[in-house]
Amino acid sequence: MKRLALAAGLILAAFASSAHAETTLIVGDQKGNARAVMEASGVLKDVPYKIEWKEFAAAAPLLEALGAGALDSGLVGDAPFTFAAAANVPVKAIGAIRQTGDGLAVLVPKDSTIKSFDDLKGKKIATGRGSIGHQLILAALEQKGWTASDVQIVFLAPSDAKVAYTRGSVDAWSTWEPYVSQEEVLFQSRVLLNAEGLTSGLSFVVATPNAIRDKHAELEDYLRRLTAARAWALNNADAYAQTWGKLMNVAPSVPLNWLTRAKIRIAPIDDGVAVDEQKTIDLYLRSGLIKQKLDANAIVDRSFNDAIGKGAGL
């Protein structure tokens, strides 16, 4: 009888393992961000399910895909996440991404006569609507006591913003990594200001409610691996930059510039994360970018914190 029970148990375990292996986790990535670090660190070698990567140039289309059910999870900044949550896109933050503020910046071409953010009064600044670049502009305006009408914000996707910026159709570009490093390293653009002291530099790993319900184990495993990969990258920026450069077909000097100063790490959704997200919500509400007051705690999910802790070796 015991043998029969043991055999039945082994069959059930094998069946569960097989079912798990057949699961596909569809992940939206921005410019190879998660995929490159996970490939470079080797954490993807024994994944017991399939990861299907979808590449996006910015958070807005990634969040649209999540809202449409075309993705299970993805990486986005706190600002576009807030914008999406206010628009009732079904998505929750399941992990936080902390990094320095150097990689979110307002840039001007190297030969521009503009020397400081003050010189941008009345000038055109390109960025994405609801993006972290938009957030940076609003935070800078608020700090100076200006209003949104004191500058001309031109809403463009990154590829279009790059064209407008290069042609001189706009005076400045408020953008994020890897675009900031690409401009600095390859074209010697100058930084007028960055996010240090203005925004939290917070980003999120997000997921749909359906994925949280139906693929919770896979998402836990994915977050554990991503956390471990990010911890590895803190001491292996060169290897990560090489992998990222090959994946994105960009000179490794660009990601190396970005990664050595960013100090990116995955963090659990704790009270500090909720406080920082609430600040972003409140900034967008004051600026009129969103119309409804959101509670940060209602749009995050803390059930993945243990997996993040395991990935970090805690």
From TrEMBL:
Pfam families documented for this protein: NMT1
Boundaries of every Solute-binding protein family 3/N-terminal domain copy: 24-236
GO MF terms held by the record: ATPase-coupled transmembrane transporter activity
Family per record: Belongs to the bacterial solute-binding protein SsuA/TauA family.
This protein's UniProt keywords: Signal, Transport
Places the protein is found: Periplasm
A cellular component term, taken from the record's GO annotations: periplasmic space
Protein species of origin: Tardiphaga robiniae
Name of protein: Putative aliphatic sulfonates-binding protein
Known role: Part of a binding-protein-dependent transport system for aliphatic sulfonates. Putative binding protein.
UniProt main location, coarse: periplasm
Protein's UniProt keywords contain Cytoplasm: no
UniProt-listed Gene3D superfamilies: Periplasmic binding protein-like II
